[in-house]
Every structure is written in structure tokens, then in C-alpha cells.
Design the sequence.
């Protein structure tokens, strides 16, 4: 009984914590983020395992974690509202070359992040070349360039 | 403020056209608000832990004493299966003929295990709802006994510590309430 409670408690704690801190995608993490993640897993492991080193306990923990995960994913496909709360929703942060500063500030992003993503994926040079930039649920930025790049500094009528 | 300006810009309100996207401005605002609350709660947890509200810290360490001079130092907040120290200081007046008799209530021992007692008691026996430990005391001045205790139950645990003088049966009693976190 205790193992199941421990596993569920740690699972929900991590879920809530990672939602609160705002997620960043795996591709974007820095070395330091990675080390931090390892330390967090170490700390979480102590809370889950306690001083029970039996295989039975390990099996119970793993099965519980996977079961909770599967149940949640089932729930998410059934109820889009829950999915939105658990995984967040995509957010448009640049529209027709105009950065939506308020949204970016709240999502803790700046124009440099968007421009970096634009350079990396599309070789774009300026904000005006971006039709849409979307902060996806996983935390990475998708850039949609204009299909026909407008002249520099010219914002076409939407 | 840039945010206020952006708010009036037509593009930020409602759904964006042309892009098939599950964007929901209301939800986004609600989730940002929740995120802020979450940060506040995280800060609170850190501060509470520093203060000792979650065990081992200035707010957790507490002391009770009787008029006879018996003194007990213990942790108000303990953690499940995490050992901590409890220190009992008894004045010379409660020692008789080189013997001190310290009893701990059964109720307290049911919720925790005593890992070690320093110094080791000479003998221990059962007295109804109490477990009595007999110590040999030489020298003058107050005697200090420490117990290393591991809580075995989550939640509130109340207990008593009693010191009886062997000769005339004069006794002093202390009560403690401990909260154990999971």
C-alpha cells in the first residue's frame, strides 16, 4: 500500500511542479538543466523507495507509475479540458511579424528567443519575415514564415 | 507599459484566424495566474523548510520544563522514518541514591522507535502504560540523557515523560506533542 501511495504522490508532485515552472522542451535544455534534472530524479527516488530495496517494491513502483501515466493519457484523450490543464495549450507569440510582447513576457520569452528559433529552423533574418511564431505545448517555438517573403520592414495588410 | 498597449491591439484578442490552432486566451490567462500562485507556494515551502516548519529547524526545536527543573528538548515537527534527537535534563533533586528512573508513555513508544539511549539504561521495565528506564547517576549537577527516536507513524503523536524519585516516589511529568510529516 505504502509503495503505491509513494509512487502516486511523487508522480503528482512532479507533474504539478513541472507544470508550474513552465516546461521547456528536451531539445532546448542546457547542460545545467540536465544536471538539475538528474539531481531531481535522485531526490525523488529517495522519497519513493524509502528504505525498501526489494524487487517487489521496485516492481510495484514501476507498475504504479506506468499505470498512472496510461490512465492519465486515456483521460486526456477523453477530456480535452483536462489535457489543456495538464499539458498547456499552444500560444501564438508572433502574428504577421508583430511580436505579442505581453504574451511573450508572461511566457518568459523574449524576441531573441523567437529570432533564434527563426534562424535555426528557417534561416530567417528579421521578425518581419515571420508570419506566425507559436509557443508549442512542449515548450519549443515553431516558426511559420510567410510563403512569399514580404519586402523588408513592410507589414502587409492582414 | 507595453502589456497594456498590446492588450488593445486587435490581434491579441480572441482566436487567431488563418492558423488552425487550439489557442484559448482565457485558459492561457488562468494558467498563468495559477503558475504565479504555484511560484508563491514554492517560495513558501522553501521559507517554511528554512524556518523548520517541515522539521528540524528553529521553529521545530522546542523545550518544555517543570517547576522541579526537569527539562525536555524535542522536535515539534518530525519526519516519517527519519531519526531525530530528544534530550532530557534532570536536576539532581530527582536523583536518589545514584539512581534516576525515567518513564516514557506507551502511547509515544507505539508511534516511534527508540534507536538508542545515551547513556544506556541499567534496566528497563514495564509499568502499565509506561516503560521505565533505570539509570545510574554519579556525580553532582544535572544529568542529561539523550534519546535517538525514529517516528513510525504519520500524523500527531502525543506522549509523556515522567521522572520518579526512587525513595519517596516524588515525580515530575512532562507532555509533548509531535507532528510527523510523511
Sequence:
Amino acid at each position: 500500500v505504502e509503495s503505491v501511495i509513494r509512487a502516486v504522490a511523487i508522480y503528482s508532485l512532479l507533474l504539478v511542479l513541472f507544470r508550474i515552472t513552465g516546461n521547456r522542451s528536451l531539445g532546448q535544455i542546457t547542460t545545467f538543466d540536465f544536471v538539475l534534472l538528474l539531481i531531481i530524479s535522485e531526490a525523488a527516488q529517495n522519497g519513493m523507495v524509502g528504505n525498501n530495496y526489494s524487487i517487489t517494491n521496485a516492481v510495484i513502483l514501476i507498475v504504479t507509475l506506468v499505470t498512472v501515466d496510461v490512465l492519465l493519457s486515456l483521460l486526456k484523450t477523453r477530456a480535452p479540458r483536462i489535457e489543456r490543464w495538464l499539458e498547456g495549450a499552444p500560444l501564438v507569440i508572433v502574428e504577421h511579424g508583430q511580436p505579442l510582447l505581453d504574451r511573450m513576457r508572461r511566457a518568459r520569452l523574449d524576441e531573441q528567443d523567437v529570432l533564434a528559433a527563426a534562424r535555426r529552423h528557417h534561416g530567417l533574418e528579421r521578425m518581419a519575415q515571420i508570419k506566425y511564431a507559436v509557443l508549442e505545448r512542449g515548450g519549443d517555438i515553431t516558426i511559420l514564415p510567410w510563403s512569399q517573403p514580404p519586402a523588408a520592414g513592410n507589414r502587409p495588410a492582414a | 507599459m507595453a502589456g497594456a498597449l498590446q492588450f488593445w491591439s486587435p490581434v491579441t484578442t480572441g482566436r487567431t484566424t488563418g492558423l488552425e490552432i487550439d489557442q484559448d486566451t482565457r485558459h492561457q490567462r488562468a494558467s498563468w495566474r495559477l503558475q504565479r500562485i504555484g511560484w508563491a507556494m514554492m517560495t513558501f515551502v522553501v521559507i517554511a523548510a528554512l524556518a523548520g516548519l517541515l522539521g528540524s529547524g528553529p521553529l521545530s526545536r522546542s523545550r518544555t520544563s517543570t517547576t522541579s527543573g526537569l527539562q525536555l528538548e524535542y522536535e515539534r515537527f518530525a519526519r516519517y522514518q527519519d531519526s531525530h534527537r530528544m534530550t532530557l535534563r534532570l536536576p539532581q533533586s530527582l536523583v536518589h541514591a545514584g539512581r534516576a528512573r525515567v518513564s516514557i508513555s506507551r502511547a509515544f513508544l507505539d508511534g516511534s522507535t527508540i534507536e538508542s539511549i545515551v547513556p544506556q539504561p541499567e534496566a528497563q521495565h514495564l509499568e502499565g502504560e509506561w516503560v521505565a528506564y533505570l539509570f545510574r547517576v554519579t556525580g553532582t549537577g544535572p544529568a542529561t540523557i539523550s534519546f535517538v527516536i525514529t517516528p513510525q507513524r504519520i500524523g500527531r503523536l502525543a506522549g509523556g515523560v515522567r521522572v520518579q524519585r526512587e525513595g519517596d516516589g516524588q515525580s515530575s511529568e512532562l507532555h509533548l506533542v509531535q507532528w510527523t510529516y510523511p
